[in-house]
Amino acid sequence: MSNLHRPHAFLFDLDGTLLDTARDMGEALNLLLNQYDLPQREYNEYRPIASHGAKGMLGLGFGEQLQNFDYETLRADFLACYANQLNTHTRLFDGVAQLIDGIQQAGLPWGIVTNKPEHLTTPLLQHFPQLHHADIVISGDTLPQRKPHPAQLFMAQEHLAIEHGNIWYIGDAERDILAASAASMVPVLAEYGYICPSELPHQWKASLRISQPEQLLRYIG
């Protein structure tokens, strides 16, 4: 959009925005489902759900039967399965490495704000050198509140010491757009991420929509 000002900093969601984690999350779900003799889920079923984390994946896998289980126990079991194969298939989305290089060459600060728990976020990021240069990483349990609440983004803004309106937040879920808007940042929708069409993403009030990460480079030149 022509009315967008040049960003002074970027903040990114993690799953479905910087890292393609869907297959590892889906295989963790299938390991858990196998323990309960429940049907396995295919990639095309769980990929659109992956950004919704444990809650979304368990809802997909267990369906109506989910109410028959202790949710917190299932969640812990799912996260344990996932932690055991955290980086088997996970990779950077195409274009992310080039985008991060461009941001750093432009001298712009950037960070990661995710709802993923810290005990999973930190070891996962260790596998991706391009992400080691983040100025700040805020996980889902860094604060009591998580997206769509804007508290995580306010914390990142305070650390970066840049005016809210000059920070762009990029994510692939409605909660990302809502959190960015509530924090008075520029919400950018990563349409290449994990989005289910039934969520009506065309109605989300993003200031910009990108189909490839490197599209952001045109705004920092």
From TrEMBL:
UniProtKB keywords: Carbohydrate metabolism, Hydrolase, Magnesium, Metal-binding
Q: Which Pfam families match?
A: HAD_2
InterPro entries given for it?
HAD-like_hydrolase_sf, HAD-like_sf, HAD-SF_hydro_IA, HAD_2, HAD_sf, PGP-like_dom2
> Gene3D superfamilies per the record?
HAD superfamily/HAD-like, Putative phosphatase, domain 2
Keyword Metal-binding on this protein? yes
Which NCBIfam families would you find in this protein's record?
HAD-SF-IA-v1 (TIGR01549)
Give the protein name, as stated in the record. Answer: Phosphoglycolate phosphatase, bacterial
User: What organism does this protein naturally occur in?
Assistant: Lacimicrobium alkaliphilum
Q: Which gene encodes it?
A: gph
